[in-house]
Structure formats: C-alpha cells, structure tokens
Amino acid sequence: MNYEQIKYEVSESILTITLNRPEKLNAFTHQMMHEMIDALDKADDDDNVRAIIVTGAGRAFCAGADLSSGGNTFDSDARGDRASGLQRDGGGRLTLRIFECKKPVIAAVNGAAVGIGATMLLAMDIRLAADNAKFGFVFSRRGIVPEACSSYFLPRIVGISQALEWTYSGKVFAASEALQGGLVRSLHSSESLNGEARELAKQFSNETSPVSIALIRQMMWKMLGANDPMDAHKVDSRGIYHMGRSPDCKEGVESFLEKRPAKFPMQVSKDMPKYYPWWQKQDFE
C-alpha cells in the first residue's frame, strides 16, 4: 500500500508512524485508518522492527475525526455503510489491531489529541506527551458516545471515576491533567519528545528477546479481561514451558553467565510457540 496520510519510517529497528495531514491537524479518516492498519500488519511481519512510535506531523497529534461531511459525519446509514456491511466503528478497528500487535507501541503525543486522537492512544503501551499537548474525550459534546473500544481501555488505564469525569464533561484538558490522571507516563518539551520516545523504544528492543516481548505484550493485555488468576497461571505455565526450552532462553542464560550481550536467534515472524495465540478471536456480529 502507498501511504498518503501517514509516514512509515524505520531507523535503528524502530518504526515511526507519523499521522500526516498537518494542514487538517491530522484529522482521522477512513483512509488513515486503513493505512495505519496496513502499517501495523507490515510491522508485525518485519523482524527488523522491534518497537513502534506513533506521533503526528505539525502542531497536532490528531484533532479527531474529519468533520468535513458536516452533520452526517457519524451517520453510517447516510454514508451507505450499512448496505455495504461497513457499519463498524473505524476507530475500534484500529485499536483492536493495535491490541493484537506483536511489537511494543509508544505514543509520542506532540499536540492536540481529541476524540479518536485520544482514544487511539489507549491501546498503545506507553504514552508520552509534549507539555503543551491537550486531550479531550469530547463525544458527549458531539451527541455520540466514546468509540475505539475506549469503554474497555480507558477505565482500566485511569480508573472508572476519572474515565467518567472526562467522558461526561467532554472537556479538553491540559497535558498536566492527563499526567495527574494517569493517562500519560511523562511530559517533555516539544523538542525532546521524540528523542525520549526513541530512548524508551531502545530499552524495549536492545538485548531483549523479540519473541519474549511479543508474548509479554499479549499476556499483559489479554489478562486484563481474565476472570480468575488461574487463567494467567495457565498462560504463564505454557510460556515458561515452551520458552524455557527454546534457543532464546539458552542464549539469555548463557550470555548472563558469560557477562556478554545476548544475541537472541528467534524471530517473531516464524518462531512464536505453537500455543500462540491461546485465545479464540471474537467475530463482529
């Protein structure tokens, strides 16, 4: 796929996906959704990509959905989506794809992140923000409801009371409030934001097993919805059994004992254990 509304750049095994409609404050479109999903597919298949950073071009991260269709922007019937079987929430399709990603995903929020610009962040692993960024879950002020699976993700990240305060009010709030509420990890100057995100990405990708990272990511996210600790015990036990006899485990232990950097031989594209995925994918009905 040729990308028109995002940039796809890999350097030092770190992929940077840049939302690239700066003249529209990177407003979200169906085309952008398809391009981002394709980029994540491509990244998962590329063993050279060890971590992903998502940021925006210009002065915004993403100012929300493109409202150029006016009052029919969110009307799937008016767009003919129901007749074509495409009435699914586009933001949700993106966050579900982020949720299934095998690589760590870091958000570098360089400016306004409103609507889908805020909710797409929730399925990302770590969120860093510029100190002048702004956030808004503005759906109640647009006569709609939160999308992009945010009713699942947001309360788990910030707690139910904070999630309801932000979604009830629909207000746009400062980066300092996002930090205090637990939405973002840390604030940085605009000049240092991308550098800080890259340093974090390097921590995830240097001297770590890519297969271990892929399994850890899915174990942590999937267990958020577990009914009992036994569900986690079962998955942990499978992971310890399969990885414990793997070439990566042997290399990890021997490199430690020999006091040298590890060189893990296994690759995500072909060496995931046979029990992966251990969950049954749900269909949209």
Total strands: 10
Provide the CATH superfamily of the largest domain.
2-enoyl-CoA Hydratase, Chain A, domain 1
Number of domains: 2
* Spans where pLDDT lies below 50 across 5 or more residues: none
In whole angstroms, the N-to-C terminal distance is 28 Å
Structural class: alpha/beta
Largest sheet: 6 strands, mixed
Number of helices: 12
How much strand content do the residues show?
15-25%
Give the rounded overall mean pLDDT. Answer: 94
Q: Give the CATH class of the largest domain.
A: Alpha Beta
The percent range for helix content is 40-55%
Order of strands in the sheet with most strands: 1-2-3-5-7-10
What is the secondary structure topology, with strand pairs?
Elements: E1 6-11, E2 14-19, H1 30-45, E3 51-56, E4 60-62, H2 76-79, H3 90-99, E5 105-109, E6 112-114, H4 116-119, E7 126-130, E8 134-136, H5 150-158, H6 160-169, E9 172-174, H7 175-180, E10 186-188, H8 193-205, H9 210-222, H10 229-244, H11 247-257, H12 268-271
Parallel strand pairs: 2-3, 3-5, 4-6, 5-7, 6-8, 7-10
Antiparallel strand pairs: 1-2, 8-9
What does this structure look like?
The chain has 285 residues and is of the alpha/beta class. It has two domains: 6-205, 2-enoyl-CoA Hydratase, Chain A, domain 1; 210-271, Lyase 2-enoyl-coa Hydratase, Chain  A, domain 2 (Orthogonal Bundle). It contains twelve helices and ten strands. It has helices spanning 30-45, 76-79, 90-99, 116-119, 150-158, 160-169, 175-180, 193-205, 210-222, 229-244, 247-257, 268-271; strands at residues 6-11, 14-19, 51-56, 60-62, 105-109, 112-114, 126-130, 134-136, 172-174, 186-188. It is globular, with a radius of gyration of 20 Å.
